[in-house]
Design brief:
This protein has 325 residues and is of the alpha/beta class. It has 13 helices and eight strands.
Length: 325
């Protein structure tokens, strides 16, 4: 397994908050994002420049993007759906555009209201705008590991879309398990094939824990050679087009796994806790992260209050049994 430093990308400010019913006030968003900026992330997805009517939770995208503190070494990215969104993102000084389309024709229509060909043409125009402005581009391929409506997406189709976007000149591609359908064997094969096919592209893996396999899939992606991962603080987020699809892989859980493996990602479970506390207070509900519920495996708990008497009785019985032998 690789010992290269792992890059963690925090997606809760965009992918997570867009699924929440509550609107987090702009001042609170900015303060929380500034808190995240000091933790060691490689990238933070700050917001989305979609229509405010479509995602009211992120209607303050420009203001948030302009007001956040930019920590050295952190890339601040935003989802950009179209040319108007690109103009807004450029004005907001986004370091990177994150463009989204689905590897599943069915999911692309349901989610984006466009055919894949229409999506590609739109994103090709946005890519050219980014290049003219000197802004990096990453493409997130939704449902790369399967679609809840269409079923399996042939790997050849995923590779075809990767090739087309690389030919446009994008810097990165994210392979997204949008609804938690991936399994470790599939992840190992698809990620390995993508890295071998386009070795000059920065590949990221994005998993959901819908069926409890996010950690296993992260491990498989690491084995394939992936060194960049999306994760969402607390595990918030999800997909509106997959009944029962739960949230993203929790940042705390991914960091915990990497710490257990002895891999450096610049973050630690303990230093994430205050930012997760802030998020929970802003949302007003518990966060689904497993590590947040149970604590890290190295956390120790005090024995029962009567442990000394339990031990003394056990030792006395043991001595009596030895004397009878």
């Amino acid at each position: 397994m690789t010992r290269t430093r792992i890059a963690l990308h925090e997606v809760a400010p965009r992918d997570g908050l867009q699924m929440e019913a509550v609107f987090v006030p702009t001042d609170d968003k900015v303060a929380w994002l500034d808190q995240l900026s000091g933790l060691g992330y490689a990238k933070i997805e700050v917001t989305s420049f979609v229509s405010p009517a479509a995602i009211p939770a992120l209607r303050d995208a420009e203001e948030v993007m302009r007001r956040i503190h930019r920590a050295p070494g952190v890339a601040y990215t935003a989802l950009v759906p179209n040319a108007r969104g690109a103009e807004r993102a450029i004005d907001g000084r986004a370091d990177e555009f994150n463009l989204v389309m689905s590897a599943s024709a069915t999911h692309n229509l349901a989610n984006l209201r466009m055919t894949q060909a229409q999506s590609f043409r739109t994103l090709a125009d946005v890519t050219r705008m980014a290049q003219q402005a000197g802004v990096a581009v990453n493409v997130s391929l939704s449902c790369a590991f399967g679609c809840p409506m269409q079923g399996d997406v042939p790997p050849a189709e995923v590779m075809g879309w990767i090739d087309r976007f690389v030919d446009l000149g994008v810097q990165g591609v994210t392979l997204c398990d949008t609804t938690g359908m991936a399994d470790p064997g599939q992840v190992l094969a698809l990620c390995g094939a993508a890295l071998a096919r386009q070795p000059g592209t920065a590949f990221t893996a994005h998993f959901h824990d819908t069926r409890g396999l996010a950690g296993a899939n992260v491990f498989a992606a690491l084995q394939a050679g992936i060194t960049r991962f999306d994760a969402s603080l607390g595990g918030i987020g999800g997909c509106p087009y997959a009944p029962g699809a739960s949230g993203n892989a929790a940042t705390e859980d991914v960091v915990h796994l990497l710490q257990c493996l002895g891999l450096d990602c610049g973050l630690r479970v303990e230093t994430l806790a205050p930012a997760a506390d802030t998020l929970q207070a802003l949302l007003g509900h518990a966060l689904p992260s497993a590590v947040r519920r149970a604590g890290p495996r190295w956390q120790r708990h005090a024995p029962p209050a009567d442990f000394d008497s339990i031990r003394d009785r056990a030792l006395a019985r043991e001595a009596g049994q030895a004397g009878q032998a």
